[in-house]
Amino acid sequence: LMKFVQYATVACALVTVAACGTDSSGTQNDQKCDAESTFEQIQQQIFEAQGCTASACHGDFMQGGLDLRPESAYANLINVEASSGNYVRVFPGEQDLSVLYQKVAAKTEGFELSALPSPIGGGTMPTGPGALSDADLGLLRVWIRGGAPETGIVEGSEEFASCKLEGEIA
Question: How far apart are CA 64 and CA 51, in angstroms?
């Protein structure tokens, strides 16, 4: 079992490193997004582009019990108790109470998860040397602050999308 865990960790790190070359700088271009909602854009721009949905990460092996593949991600995130700290995975309306946000923000902004008022165990995300861009982190933050809806465009999220989000404001 230990060999398997080590292999899965190494595989996840390798997948993430490979995905970190993807340009998700948040510089919006005139190309319309494939996504019909802010959450779908997060799925594409962050979870898939960063390699989070890879089999060894939050795909088939569901590290930390979290499945981030499109068919499961939303139900696995919203108001689901996190395995570390006094947090849920995503607390709609408040990114500071959302372990997902804290883990990616710690990597992007360079703070220690153990220094939070309610420390979070485990590592920052994504694994490997890459981090979310400021635009990716902004997209996630605006979505959570906007109530983390599954459908619709959260007001202000267009600013951080890597493409042109169009649709009804949620």
Answer: 16
Q: Which 3 state secondary structure label does DSSP give 66?
A: coil
Match 């494939």 to its residue by tokens: 34
**Cβ–Cβ under 8 Å, residues 160 and 143:** no
Residue 123 CA to residue 59 CA, distance in Å, equals 18
Least confident of 7-16, 52-61, 73-82, 100-109: 7-16
CB within 8 Å of 44: residues ≥ 6 apart = 33, 34, 35
Distance CA 170, CA 158 (A): 12
In the DSSP assignment, the letter for residue 44 is I
**Paired residues of 32 in beta bridges:** 164
The model's pLDDT over 58-103, given as tens digits with 9 standing for 90+, comes to 655 556 778 888 898 999 999 999 987 789 999 999 999 999 999 9
Burial of 152 (0-12, 13-18, 19+ CB in 10 A): middle
